[in-house]
Amino acid sequence: MKTIGATSVFKIYICSMTLNYKNISINYTVKGQGKVLVLLHGFLETIDMWTDFVPELSKTRKVICIDLLGHGKTECLGYIHSMDDMAEAVFAVLKHLQIEEISCVGHSMGGYVALALAEKHPNLVNDLCLMNSTFEADDNERKILRARAAQMATTNYESLVRMSFVNLFAPESKVPFASEIKKALDIGLKTPVQGFIAGHKGMAIRPNRYDVFKSINGKKVIIIGEKDWIVDKELVLKKTKNTDIETVIFSEGHMSHIENKKELSYFLKRFVEK
C-alpha cells in the first residue's frame, strides 16, 4: 500500500476528539475495535508520527493516539511537565473512554510517560514496548544538556529545534529520508516554546523505572537503534540480559518510525498478536 493511500484511509475513518482536563484541552484519536493499543509519541512529535501505522494496527485493535502535554493540539499545564503529569493526562483520556487495560508503545519520551503510567496504575498496562526509549534516568551530563537547551529556547528557539532534531537521525539516513525528515521537523517546529521547556525539564527529573518495567506481566520489549546515541544500547542490553525483557535492534538511529519503517511495521503487527 502506498503511503498516500494509508494516509487517506487514516483521515477518512479516524475519530478525533478533545478532552477538557485541568482547564486545558487534550487531543486524541480513536480508530478500530477490540483490545486497546495506546501509541505515545516522543518529544517534538505529535500523534501524526503514527499515521502510517494506525490503519493496519486498527484492523485488530482499538488504537488510541494521544498528543502529550505541550505537543500537537494538547495545551501546556505549566513550565515543567513531569512524566507523571503527562501520564495522568493520558490516564484521564483512558478513564473518560472507560478503558481499564491497555497495551502501549511509547517512542522516546512517550516511553518515559508509559513507564510512569504503569507505575501509577499497575493494573492498567499489560504489554509495553519502549521504542527508542529506556527505563534509565538521565545522567548528570544529560541533565546539564537539558537545562542548557531549556535556557537557549528562550532566545534562539528555531535554530535549537533544527539542530536537536537532525541529530536524532543516523548520518546515513539524512539523504534518503530527507523529505520525511523535513515533514517531521516542520511538525516539531510547531511545538510551543513552553512545551519544549516543560518537556525537557520533566524528562530531566524522571526516576529510573527499571523495576517498574520488569514488573509488567505481559510483553516487555525495548527497540534500540544501532546508531542511536540517545539510548545507551550496551547498558540496556546488560540490564535486560537473562530477563524476560525482549530487545530488538534496528539498523539506524533514534527515529525508527522513519529510518526503519518497514521493520517497525512488521514488529508492531507481531507485538499486538496474542
UniProtKB/TrEMBL annotation:
Q: Domain named AB hydrolase-1: which ranges?
A: 36-260
Q: Which domain of life is it from?
A: Bacteria
Question: What is the protein's name according to its record?
Answer: Pimeloyl-ACP methyl ester carboxylesterase
| InterPro entries hit by this protein | AB_hydrolase_1 (IPR000073), AB_hydrolase_fold (IPR029058), AB_hydrolase_sf (IPR050266)
One cellular component term from this protein's GO annotations in UniProt: membrane
